[in-house]
Model the fold of this input.
Amino acid sequence: MSVQQDVRPSLQTEGLSKAFGGVQAVNGATVTFHEGKVNALIGPNGSGKSTFFNIVTGMIAPDSGTVRFRGQDITRRAPHRICAAGIGRSFQLCRTFPRMTVLENLLVAVRPTGLGQLVGSSQNRRQVERARELLRRVGIDHLEGSLAQDISYGQQKLLELAGVLMGEPDTILLDEPAGGVNPALIGRIGTLVKELNAEGRTFIIVEHNMDMVMSLSDHIVVFDRGAPIAEGTPSEVQQDPRVLEAYLGV
Amino acid sequence: MTALITQAVILGILLGGLYALLAAGLTLYFGVMRVVMIAHSAFLILAAYLAWAFHRATGIDPLFSLIATVPLFFLLGVVMQRFLLSRLKPATLTMMSVLLTFAIALIIEGMLGFVWTGTQRRISLSYSTASLEVFGANIAVVKLVAFGLAAVSLLALYLLMKATSFGQALRATIQHKEAAALLGIDTEKVAGYGFGLGLATAAIGGTALALDSTIYPSLHWHWIGPLMAIIVVGGLGSIPGAAIAALVLGLSQSLLQIPLGTTWAQTVFYLALFITLMVRPQGFFGGRLAQRF
Amino acid sequence: MPNASDLATPTPTAPDTGRPDDSAGERFDRRLGLAKAGLGVVAIVLALMVPWLAPDAFILSVAVVIASYAAFAVGWNFVGGFTGYISLGHASYSGLGGYAVALLTTHTGINPWVALVLGAVVVALLAVPIGIASLRVRGASFVIVSIALVLILLLVFQSWASVTGGSEGLRVPRPFDSSVLRPEQHTRFYFLFLVLIGIALVVWWLIDRSQFGAGLKAIREDEDKAEALGVPTFRYKLVVFVISAFFTSLAGGLYALWFGNLDPVFQFSILTGSYMVLMSLFGGIRSLVGPVVGAVVVGYAMEVFKAQYGDSQFHLVALGLLLAVVVLFMPEGVVPEVLGLVHRLRPAATSIREESAAQLLERNRAIDAERRAQTEATSEREPVEDPRHATTGKGRS
Done:
């Protein structure tokens, strides 16, 4: 496993564990994701990736272990505070606010800077402009007045991504961005990730689509039974016998 | 004084048994459907009225009304789940089901008052005034019968859950509905039966209640509060948790009656509810499930 | 390894739904806006004229009762409408508001109007710990606590007779001197309720359009998602909960001053709370005027029902049935339903908004099939696959 000199830690966990009843979903996971890179988290179904994501973003409290973001301890912080620290996330089965318009979906993510902005109109011109810009960027600006429940699943995925970007996170966690969408859209999401990464944003992606993972990521962490079993560049991971074993059960 | 305390302890346990049975029913509904069933205690009072009416009409011991009310309530539960609750949208199920069951409670209360008036009713049996002396404490026989009924039903429920394949399906559905469905369990059907079982506990509890209590249509409001408190303290969705919380709180209520009197002793439930939510919102015996609701 | 891309078939583009409004549609919108404004003005004028339209003092007192229902419903809707948390126990706050006014005026002798506001502030402060306890977990516990609170307050206020008067009742000093006769009293209180409703609606509207309101509505739609997007959900819920308690308490205090006598059984009644829910839900909890419309319609119906059949047990059955019907068949409420109908009349079948997701899917699929038949057209816009139809063999981790 080669560790380059220029690696800076972004999100780090140490000994993270969580059990549900008798099932150890995450089991002493110690992982470091690289700042400024596209990191991927892969593993067989039920290997604890989603639970890991949920712990890191504060949706679930871990039984033990710590989560650090750029050296700062963020374990057990409320999700909105983790978001404020600069981590944005998407959900596995794409979640939007169904009975709000596409534009409103984005305006929710505006972080009010003071009481004035909190009680002031959510349709603040500057924020609306920024939201429209993001919608243009993901290519659904023509739908801004539609309710989120009325747009297609692929459009909802793009909407969710735009919503995450609205919070100006510098680290973005995507839970299965290619799940349930067709190849053309997968390509488009991949391009977006590359562009955003080039602008300096760090990505951590849970994904089953190996084509996407291999073409997109700089650093891959492989999970099995709630803990990492291998990590490295795409080519390193592909050749790792432990990975093949975990996936194929050889 | 010791006799007084012994009496309070015994009465507390007897009361706790009834609470435990009823709380188990509430937990079942919540487990299978994520529904807070406000009408549970209204059905309890309905069963008590049916037992009373049965006794008045036939003169036979009200316990025999169970032969009819238990299957009837089971069926009612299945029907309620299938035709009312499963119609609600999943997204707003928790809130809307509360309102729907609340509406059912109002309808039952209103119908009870309409059919049998608001007059207080009480069954008088040959053994109504009989009592046993246990460790120097006087315990009414009807209370023992009521407890026995509750205990036997709880045991039956426990065995059903642990030892039968239906019980296994029920537990799987409670723990993780989607996973259970993936295993080939017809979770909708199981949820219906779970609802039926829950309502059956109300039938049994109501009959037990009718033996030694004065009943009137709005009595259900006095039961729903404590029962709700019990299931939250026990951890929503956990039947053993509910049973333990029921016994502990029933006992506390009974003991607190000595210094505080009956009215203030009831506040122990609400105090426990409040403390639980502040200190341990997932309940004292609940697991992952309770955190999300 | 199964791979989404192996199974997903490319589908041609979904139709561009954001087509520019045609002029007929725009004209329709303008007319609708005018109609709404006109209706609003007529409603306000009618509401203001009620004291002169009412033939006798009894009808006028019914109008005051309905106005109080509207004030309660609007107060309730701060928490119910924005966050979707249904409180069945808001009688706690109206009851506390009533007792606060009564006790403050009798014991300290301060001006009853000052006592009204002061009482509501005290109740709002009490609502803070209650909110902290009941909003920590999701919906179910909130409902349980809301019901438990009414029951416990009933218990306490009945037992603590030395302060509250218990079941004997507590007399509330009249705020107007005795020279003001009954019909005049009704008129004054009627307008006071209208003012209260007006203020509450303005606050509701301000929140609705604010960043705070956007966060609250996001909580109603998907609380986890709102958290992940940085909305401090707990704090937001707590604030709106306290605002709701404040306005409900004001309405309760005003009612106490009008009615002049408090009995715990009526002040802390589960039924009072359920009226608020039923009225708001009936009118539509997501709209500004929904609770008011609901209060007028349901309140009027209930008063007529009471006048016809007396305060019998049938009253409960009717209330229960009505609530069940609303929950099962029109959970969105009357106002949104009617608006939806009106929008369907809009020329050019237009905006996609009134289509359900299922209808949209159906239409998209029809169009897809048509296009596929014509050509294997390449798509310029995002071609998408609905996950409900993509049989990806992939499970979830």
